[in-house]
């Protein structure tokens, strides 16, 4: 479990001396069990929001409800990983040179979904 914790937090060497920022970070962060519970709760809420959005497509005028629920469900699912590795480490990994294109495409798709429904007033 400690090895998984080190990999997800980006700390590969367990014997490394910690600086003042690492000590501050350890003093102000959640315990490992709280992080796992937060991840699971946030991920499940994100999945449920996405499923509710998919069911909303069958309702009258459901495309707007779909866009809202589906977008917020995806954002919530993405933010669930912040519980595992922290927001700054997650953002560093998302915008790493090998992942920056995929990250930009996902963010653009989420924004374009909301723009298509609310600004362009797309009707189906």
From TrEMBL:
Membrane topology: Multi-pass membrane protein
Keywords of this entry: Membrane, Protein transport, Transmembrane, Transmembrane helix, Transport
GO biological process: protein transport
Chain ranges passing through the membrane: 38-59, 65-88, 100-120
GO CC, alphabetical: cytoplasm; endomembrane system; membrane
Domain of life from the UniProt record: Eukaryota
Subcellular localization(s) per the UniProt record: Membrane
Keyword RNA-binding attributed: no
Major site of localization recorded for this protein: membrane
Family named by the database record: Belongs to the SFT2 family.
Function noted in UniProt: May be involved in fusion of retrograde transport vesicles derived from an endocytic compartment with the Golgi complex.
Protein name, per record: Vesicle transport protein
UniProt source species: Cryptolaemus montrouzieri
